[in-house]
Amino acid sequence: MNPETPRQKKIAAVLQQELAEMLQGAIRAEGVANLLISITKVSVTSDLSLAKVYLSIFPSKNTVGHLDALRQNSGQIRHDLSQKLRHQLRRIPELTFYIDDSLDYIEQIDRALGGSDNPIKTTKAPNNP
């Protein structure tokens, strides 16, 4: 795997910023309360044709529904991005959305370590002869 070029990083940062503003604006415009969608990471391929967008959705009870809605509307989102970024980017990459569940994973680890069945504390040291 090749490291990201400075150009890829710049484009990813611009996409992350604009997508976050667009999604939060759409949520406010719809009057939806108690929903927060964060763009945690954007990764752009080396040919700049595809962007993987990682999302964190809170509350996580209807994460799949929100993700499906974003995937179904990815063409419209891409079009709206192209209108906003027409002076910065010549071509907007195809957008694919994924759930970033790293916070849930960290929370599970914290619970496991804080609970009575802590795998580190309950592991017995090997007997030395």
Overview of this protein structure:
With about 130 residues, the protein is of the alpha+beta class. It has one domain: K homology (KH) domain (GMP Synthetase, Chain A, domain 3, 2-Layer Sandwich). Helix content is about 50%, strand content about 20%. The chain has 5 helices and 3 strands. It has a 3-stranded mixed sheet with strand order 1-2-3. Strand 1 and strand 2 form a beta hairpin. It is flat. It starts with 5 loop residues before the first helix and ends in a 7-residue tail after the last helix. The mean pLDDT is about 85.
The N- to C-terminal Cα distance equals: 46 Å
H and E string: HEEHHEHH
The average pLDDT score comes to 85
Instruction: Name the strands of the widest sheet in spatial order.
Output: 1-2-3
Supply the CATH architecture: 2-Layer Sandwich
The largest sheet, given as strand count, sense and whether it forms a barrel, is: 3 strands, mixed
Multimerization state? single chain
CATH topology: GMP Synthetase, Chain A, domain 3
Number of domains: 1
Q: What is the CATH class name?
A: Alpha Beta
Into which percentage range does the β-strand content fall? 15-25%
Number of strands: 3
